[in-house]
Fold these 3 entries.
Entry 1:
Amino acid sequence: MKRVAIFGATGYTGFELVRMLLSHPGVKIVALTSEQYSDQPLAQAFPPFKGRLSGAAFGKLEKLLGADFDAAFLALPHTVSSSVAGSLLSRGVPVIDLSADFRFRSIPLYESVYGVTHKSPKLSESAVYGLPEVYRERIRKTRLAAVPGCFPTSVILGLYPLLKEGLIDRKGIVADCKTGVSGGGRGPSLGFHYPEVEEGVRPYGLPKHRHNPEMDQELSLAAGDRVSVTFVPHLMPMVRGILATCYATAKAKVTENDFEAAYRKAYGKEPFVRVLPPGLLPSTKDVRGSNFCDIAWRLDGRSRRAVVVSAIDNLVKGASGAAVQCFNLMTGFPEEEGLRAMPLYP
């Protein structure tokens, strides 16, 4: 039994971690932190989990940082994780970080994207990008996993096999993504306030969303050369989900069979990536509440235009589900433990 702590437990990703870990037979949640809700009774701060968190210490980060636990999930704001991770790692505690603090291989790039000075640049050298479908064996060996952003997860999983196998051009790739309002976090924000979103669709984060360099980093590694994605996110009047529609140009003589072989090679044995059969296309409704990523593709042989569509739940496969997947790999549990729930429907 692994005793785990969740730092930043009352945000949306923190709630998802609690929900999934309560169904994990090898986990006991022993510490939960919240800067905003720590003065409330536990049952009031976590109303969906009444009666299920007895015995868990609840309080501010500073109070619980030195508590006794075997692994830590950091669902903290960017820059805060980098100031906390070192203390935990020095005690031998594995860290699964859901912020952007350790995702970038270049510290100057991180600092330019987020407009801050990195507080633990040395730790970044030992961090592993927490995308199991690409870095599974490295995640097994690391003590610091950097869970990808939600948009990068949807785009990278969709395009990685094609770039890895050299089937599409590196230039001219476009990722048109639609997301639900929960991606803006639990804190009040006018732009993500539901009455402001309902019955409308709007782009945001232009000309360059902060997830864009993360996509470019990982897809460039896949291609073995520089990739620069034109990424445009759109806010949709829904709570959960990301639908990524990616456009690229197939190289000369590449066929549908080549695409099929690339996806089969990459994801044929993956527990959480479902490459859909002909006739089906992904929908956010079909992955809601689950750790699945659904992918489909179409290739126009005349124009050479390839369209790849992927769907994830931004709070699960795009955040907390991926974090639990990394935790399982890092601690020796079966990779699917705590993640076997089917999508919610309708």
Entry 2:
Amino acid sequence: MPMKLYVGDIIQTKKNHPCGGNQWEIMRVGMDFRIRCTTCDHQAWIPRVKLEKSIKKVISSAGDNSPANEIQER
């Protein structure tokens, strides 16, 4: 079962980005995720399976109260 990840969540990855940061903001969810490094603002597309394996922890979660999630549910 896939992890519950939402647009706006901040995640910490197991490995650091070349800029030295390891925190990413989720910009888009689905089969592929668009994530943005919170240190250098680099954006990347990554498949869900690969992202879920690289997550160390979810630092802050937008949860079910996110306006983006309310739009998707309608």
Entry 3:
Amino acid sequence: MKLEADSYLKSGSNEVRILEYRLGDACFGINILKVNKIISKVPLKTKTPHSHPAIKGIFEDRGKIIPIIDLAAFLGLPELDSTKNNKIVITEFFEQSNGFLVSKVDWIHHFKWEDVIDAKSVMGNLDHRFILGMVKPSEDHIILLLDYETIILDLCPELQINQTRKIRELEKYGEGRRALIAEDSTSVQTMLSSELSEMGFEVTAVHDGIEALNTLKLDPDYDIIISDVEMPRMDGLALTCAIRDGSAKCPTDTPVIVYSSIGDVGMKNRAEFLKADAHVTKLNIEELLDKVREFITKKDASADSIPADEASADDKIVETNTEEIADPVT
């Protein structure tokens, strides 16, 4: 499965492959780039006292301690029948492994991100905190895409607390600067907006690549762009391509940081191939802000290093006209 996952997204093709699984009769999906493997038999597990009710215990796999998360229990769905042959989908994101307990794994579907329907556009103001979008393999079949980042942050709030940077007064390097964030996970978007605002940035936050593209076409003057990869309609790699080829109408050298929960080497290579300035794995907030500061500082240094003799055309015209006027008529 890993080899198949690595075979796409190399050219900003805006593609996604969704592993479909079931929780009872409900169908859900997850990007296969987040999936490490599937365990067909639920292993013996150790109970963990005082943990979230959805965490059914932990087990060891190849030296890693992995929690088992009962997604049905977490989402308030009917509890899975423990006598059935349930599966565990082992995921890797946020630089950690988790095991999601599911009743059945069905199929891998191949979509374009523009095929992904944003949950907000369908559900409006209804509570859909853990649902990001949906796809339709056929007219009568809907697969819900969950916000796995928000689920993990809800289960492990210390992840966010531990990664939140302590702001110091001398680090207001965002004053007078503008940042654009493209991120469909509300919890991550809020976190980033808060941190960058504390740094002095004027922040604009959007939920997908198309919104980011439209924002840049109307207002291209941003000092830094931070983009998730997995987003409905247009992913962060396709957005990076649009910025670099001029389709976004902003300067093609505008710094772009790909900020993704998928932290494998393949994703880093794809980001580099598409000329993103950096790839940072969620939730490394401190590393992200260090990269932002690095690019802003580099931009300032570049602006300050213009040689004095490289005056603007207007300045040269003024100098020439002044000399001609001052020259006595003979």
